[in-house]
Write a structure and sequence with these properties.
By secondary structure, this protein is α/β, with parallel strands linked by helices. The protein contains 14 helices and 11 strands. Strands 2, 3, 4, 5, 6 and 7 form a 6-stranded mixed beta sheet that branches. α11 links the parallel β6 and β7. The longest helix is centred in the middle third of the chain and has 14 residues.
């Protein structure tokens, strides 16, 4: 029989697992800390690549303000995860069941460029910002984007959870005064949403996901679980990925149909407090009264995503008011277009969004226990 020291007896009494015995390889600072008690940095339109000069010039001739708002770009997803410490990714997803719908972007033809990537002729979900106008992406298909995330996750077992925010897009494009037809996207319906769930499950095994069923457990609704401390611990969540739907309204209603409180679904929906599926909330403006509302929602147990900047405004001015409000609000995911030093240099400012000490994750300033020890990262 192994003789126990006083420290070992104390560990056994408290239920904490020492580093050597921890299956995740992380020390006991994770014990008891829950997913909603963290804060990390995310990126907005994480796939987005800035257009070449000829496309930028054409867009500026039509709408200079809109063109300026698109002057940002991101590193490939694995680099964001590995070198920039990003733990929330955002992807815009278009359905293309027959293939080829987005294979010949209008602005590409108007600027005399050659054929686009042949992968865009294949059936499947595509990742881009605005059809025909702003289509450049570091990963052109949902399969390729998610494969990059999964491969990084597999190579960094024990990472703090990754959140993937999906915006389902199908809005027609209106270009007043432009005498050209644009692509009309395929509308999202229940069948396509089922296919989306299946696509995610085909790439992410059950053990690598955090789903609404995991959080709800035996409680009557997802919201009741969230308000009763139902989020899993950091220790249990390490190495896993969760998926969120940015859309609300009819998209949410369709996704919920036949799945009360998201039973059997993969995505957490963008809901509002008081709804049975309310677990994830999107509050893009963290300033003023909005910041106080976010803090209240975080205290109650919801997961919230907010934005530190938008439309290149903060990067051009260097104004950190919105960034600072976002971090102070307690929103678990603070999204930015400028997650690395130097990304705003082109505008003559040093604007950047990061956690204190350039940490990958920190104890949530609103919801974490007062004696919280920051979890280790990757």
């Amino acid at each position: 029989m192994v003789k126990r020291t006083g420290i070992a007896l104390l560990i056994a009494a408290t239920g904490l697992v020492p580093a050597a015995a921890s299956p995740s390889g992380h020390r006991h600072e994770d014990h008891g800390l829950r997913l909603n008690q963290l804060q990390t940095i995310g990126t907005h339109n994480s796939y987005h690549v800035e257009a070449p000069d000829q496309e930028k010039a054409l867009r500026a001739s039509v709408d200079p303000q809109a063109a300026a708002s698109l002057e940002y770009g991101h590193s490939p997803l694995p680099r964001q995860l590995e070198q920039e410490g990003i733990r929330q990714i955002e992807l815009d997803v278009y359905a293309d069941p027959e293939g080829g719908l987005y294979a010949e972007p209008l602005i590409r033809a108007l600027t005399g460029q050659g054929p686009y990537d042949p992968v865009m002729r294949e059936p499947g979900f595509k990742v881009l910002h605005i059809q025909d106008v702003d289509y450049h992406s570091t990963c052109l298909t949902l399969t390729s984007c998610l494969t990059e995330i999964k491969q990084w996750s597999d190579g960094n077992r024990g990472h703090v959870p990754i959140a993937v925010l999906l915006e389902l897009k199908d809005e027609p494009l209106s270009l007043p005064g432009v005498p050209y037809e644009t692509v009309v996207p395929v509308p999202w319906d229940a069948a396509l949403m089922d296919r989306l769930d299946a696509q995610i499950r085909s790439l992410f095994p059950r053990r690598s996901l955090i789903t609404p069923d995991d959080v709800r457990g035996s409680r009557p609704t997802l919201e009741s679980a969230v308000l009763d401390g139902g989020w899993p611990t950091v220790r249990v969540s390490r190495g896993r990925t969760m998926f969120l739907m940015e859309n609300d309204g009819d998209y949410r209603t369709t996704y919920l149909r036949g799945h009360p409180s998201l039973k059997g679904r993969v995505l957490f929906t963008h809901a509002t407090p008081g709804q049975p599926d309310a677990a994830f909330l999107e509050e893009n403006d963290p300033t003023g009264e909005n910041g106080r509302r976010i803090a209240d929602e975080v205290r109650r147990g919801y997961l919230v995503r907010t934005r530190a900047d938008a439309d290149t405004v903060e990067a051009r001015t260097g104004d950190t008011t919105r960034r600072d409000a976002a971090l102070a609000s307690g929103a678990q995911w603070v999204s930015t277009d400028y997650p690395a030093p130097g990304t705003a240099d082109r505008f003559g400012t040093d604007y950047v969004v990061s956690l204190p000490g350039d940490a990958i994750v920190r104890c949530n300033p609103v919801s974490a226990p007062s004696r919280c020890v920051p979890p280790r990262a990757p």
